[in-house]
Amino acid sequence: MEYLDLINQNIDENKEQLLQTLQELIAIKSVAEDTEGEMPFGEGVQKAFSYMLETAKKEGFPVKNTDNYGGHIELKGESDRVMGIVGHLDVVPEGSGWEEEPYGGVIKDGVIYGRGTMDDKGPVVASFYAMKAVKDSGVPLKDSVRLILGLDEETNWKGMEHYLSKVSAPDYGFTPDGDFPAIHGEKGILVFDLAKKFAPASEKGLELRSLIGGNAANMVADSARAVVRDSSGAGYEEIREKAARFSAEKQARLKCKGVGKSLEITAQGVSAHGAKPEQGVNAISVMMEFLGHLNFAGDDVNDFIAFYNSKIGFELDGRSLGCGFADEPSGSLVLNVGMIRLDSEAVSLTINVRYPVTSSAEAVYEAIRPAADEYNLGIVKGKHEEPIYIPADDPMIVTLMDIYKRQTGDMDSKPLVIGGGTYARAMKNVIAFGARFPGQPELEHQKNECVSIENLMKMTRIYAEAIYRLAGAEPETGNGGEEGSMENPAAKI
């Protein structure tokens, strides 16, 4: 196939330029912040956005900036229809424990390291160079292609909402922000707080002055810090001994340190994406289990600790909390405790739930209400994203599966339903397509996030063929993978 050969040749010739672009983008710490003025998501996100727009303009692409809330890079086609490739440039906080500089873009043994290499800067850069290869190869396009740049995907999606208020949504497309081979369903996502006010302790004794843990709702908390103070003068030797025994028995990373008249207790966990909490160790749960061995002067504090350990603990499916739903297409509900903020007056526990595609937000809230009421906890509703589900025989899914199989030779993998939330939820006829390959470690939202150069180039070729097959004016016919032909499925959308 002549055009695909030209496209792949172009991708290979631009390999070093692609890597340099990704390294420079990784070097920009683009953790979204809520700010006022001309940089609505903070200076770091703005720098990353400006960098990508300037890079595209230098390569001759028209660009669109919607008031610094997002924008796109465009490859013009003949029709009014638009294929979208929807990515994002913001990243989650880096966390701790990295072996390489999280914003260094270090290349070592054929692997590039840094926050965003997989989520989602690496796939965005791969998509951009796929567009460049199609453009430079002279492929005739029936539909225009837009690489849409989201700026707060990891937080509130305000940027995408603003972008879509200014620019029409694409007619179809994909977001390179999930898994290969193709994703035909995403669980519903809830973020909410369980909150409780504390009555003052009625007598002297051990007080839990503060407890802080976690960085984001959609991350497994990799650290937690508690400060306790004994107003009775009993001291902390017994607590230190309990902590030492607990650490040995549970193989937990728990430490104690005197801070003035108080004792600081820290717990270390392992970060992971909130959609896959089983891949991490939640430091908040470690801390709460240990605090359950102590007796605090305040009954409300003891009750809250008892609630956590009996209704949540280390469970990841919400079973004891009452919301352990499951279905055949998407499996079990997933529950992640992302953050805790506690002081002497109140506590707020931030929970991230991924519920099955056949369930609903209302069902989850109703299911947890009895446990919340039992312990006098309030439910503060937050972010909600409805589940999405597309049959596996949809033309878009079939074609993207065919492209994946042709490029990888993997004939066994099937379309997926995931717990992650992508921009596929923000617009119709858009699905998640890559960028993690089957069998690869899931390092998004974790320390040492990285991508091999081999996989980076492979995803670039896959995305370039997707542009050619979906938006091309005259896609060739012939045998593809197991699914069959090279016809253009965009005509059926």
Structural summary, described in words:
The protein is an alpha+beta fold. 30% of the residues lie in helices and 25% in strands. Strand 13 (253-259) and strand 14 form a beta hairpin. Helix 4 (121-136) packs across helix 11. The radius of gyration is 25 Å and the shape is elongated.
Q: How large is the radius of gyration?
A: 25 Å
Separate helix tally: 11
Kindly estimate the percentage of residues that lie in beta strands according to DSSP.
15-25%
Structural class: alpha+beta
- Mean pLDDT comes to 93
Flag low-confidence runs. Answer: 476-486
Helix percent reads 25-40%
Q: Give a short account of the largest sheet.
A: 8 strands, antiparallel
Shape call: elongated
What's the arrangement of strands in the largest beta sheet? Answer: 13-14-12-11-17-18-10-19
**First-residue to last-residue Cα separation:** 25 Å
Describe the secondary-structure layout.
Layout: H1 2-13, H2 15-26, H3 43-58, E1 63-65, E2 71-75, E3 82-88, E4 107-108, E5 111-113, H4 121-136, E6 144-150, H5 158-166, E7 172-175, E8 178-179, E9 183-186, E10 188-197, E11 206-213, E12 223-230, H6 237-250, E13 253-259, E14 262-268, H7 283-291, H8 299-311, E15 326-327, E16 331-332, E17 334-342, E18 346-355, H9 361-374, E19 378-385, E20 388-389, H10 395-408, E21 416-418, E22 430-432, E23 435-436, E24 450-452, H11 453-471
Parallel strand pairs: 3-6, 3-7, 7-22, 8-23, 9-21
Antiparallel strand pairs: 1-2, 2-6, 4-5, 5-24, 9-20, 10-18, 10-19, 11-12, 11-17, 12-14, 13-14, 15-16, 17-18
Helix pairs in contact: 1-4, 1-11, 2-4, 4-11, 10-11
